[in-house]
Design brief:
mainly beta, 17-stranded antiparallel β-sheet
Length: about 375
């Protein structure tokens, strides 16, 4: 049940564009370069191995790949996507992520999965937006996540879903605040192991054809999560996350897009410290460019971002973005919003696969208090 209006936000004819596959073919096989890749296959693979530096990981060796595909032979449903990330870095972080967004034929059902395992030595700075670098607290933990949600179409572009979610943090150690003050981590009372196991109920509106690189449309998601001790949770707690996105394609003759992203995330008093809303706490760990993952944290969070995406070359191979965002978290124990952490930056886009419209994204973001660095992604940030 695909909305016919989606045809107006389809990308330009991909056969006329160029991606890195075309560039490689032109170097090693010039005669077939023009013929290769002319039509979209049912399965489109993109793989980006890299050695580089980001604010969240330090220097890292990383392999990111995705497969984009249609589940129906007629390609009438939204484009499905499965993405895998494997990374090792100089902070001794080891990460494995596998995330899927699968649309069944005619968009009757949608399955969203998020499976990950990480060993994550990092820093936490306490709760709220006004925490300082002097409150840096070295922390280490292992983390396993298993999420799965199945959505059913109610009306064209409207869906309702139910799912299960598990967050398991273990081998947690913390060194204490750099300035020797009592940390919010200690005050909050995070145990050395925490389990969050429960169900989520979702409602969704999504009229984007391609979530890897949306060229228009809207996305609105409301997720209510409830963790229960009878399902294995350390505590009973709940949260609600509202996620809103809007994409404006500025001209039918180009793929330039003005995009907006807003989130409101609220949790209850018994939420484990490491499960609280945080910077880059979204599914693809992309919010808050300009700051390291987990730099800000609180029981409640408000977030807003805007980005302008534009082409640099007419063949679609290179593009660019400029962006700005702001985030605010409640402090502890008052649980009041105080202050905003703004950030801004710019980046380049390199077309990896023109048929799935997958870009390699390299951004440089600048926040406050000396926070700045690179952020790398496969597919648009939101």
């Amino acid at each position: 049940m695909v909305n016919d209006q989606k045809s107006v936000i389809a990308p330009a004819d991909s056969a006329k564009q160029r991606d890195m596959i075309d560039v490689i073919n032109s170097i090693f096989n010039k005669k077939s370069a023009a013929e290769t890749h002319k039509t979209a296959r049912r399965l489109n693979f993109s793989v980006v191995p890299s050695v580089g530096y980001t604010l969240s990981t330090g220097f890292a060796v990383d392999v990111t790949g995705n497969v984009a595909f249609y589940t129906g032979a007629a390609h009438k449903e939204n484009l499905s996507n499965i993405q895998t990330d494997i990374s090792y870095d100089t902070k001794a972080q080891r990460l494995f992520y596998n995330r899927g967004d699968i649309w069944f034929p005619d968009n009757n059902y949608r399955l969203v999965t998020d499976v990950r395992w990480v060993k994550f030595p990092t820093e936490t700075y306490g709760l709220g937006t006004q925490t300082t670098n002097a409150e840096k607290n070295e922390i280490d933990f292992n983390y396993a996540r298993v999420y799965g949600t199945l959505y059913k179409t109610l009306l064209p572009d409207f869906y309702a879903g139910v799912g299960y979610n598990l967050d398991y943090h273990y081998n947690i150690t913390a060194q204490g605040n750099q300035d020797h003050s009592i940390s919010d981590f200690q005050k909050y009372g995070q145990p050395l192991t925490s389990v969050s196991s429960g169900i989520n109920l979702d409602v969704l509106f999504d009229n984007r054809r391609n979530s890897i690189n949306p060229l228009g449309g809207e996305y609105a998601s409301l997720v209510y999560r409830q963790s229960f001790t009878f399902l294995g949770s350390s505590t009973n707690w709940r949260s609600a996350l509202l996620d809103l996105r809007k994409y404006l394609r500025l001209s039918p003759r180009s793929n330039n897009v003005l995009a907006f992203w807003g989130m409101a995330w609220f949790s209850s008093t018994a939420t484990p410290y490491l499960d609280l809303p945080q910077t880059a706490g979204d599914m693809y760990t992309n919010s808050g460019r300009g700051y390291a993952e987990g730099r800000y944290r609180g029981r409640d969070m408000l977030y807003l971002e805007s980005e302008y995406r534009f082409g640099i070359t007419h063949n679609g191979l290179l593009g660019g973005v400029v962006f700005a965002n702001g985030q605010s978290f409640t402090n502890y124990p008052a649980n009041a919003f105080k202050g905003i952490a703004p950030a801004t930056g710019a980046g380049i886009r390199v077309k990896i696969n023109k048929h799935s419209d997958t870009n390699a994204c390299i951004d440089y973001g600048v926040g406050t208090n000396g926070s700045h660095g690179f952020f790398v992604n496969l597919g648009e940030v939101f």
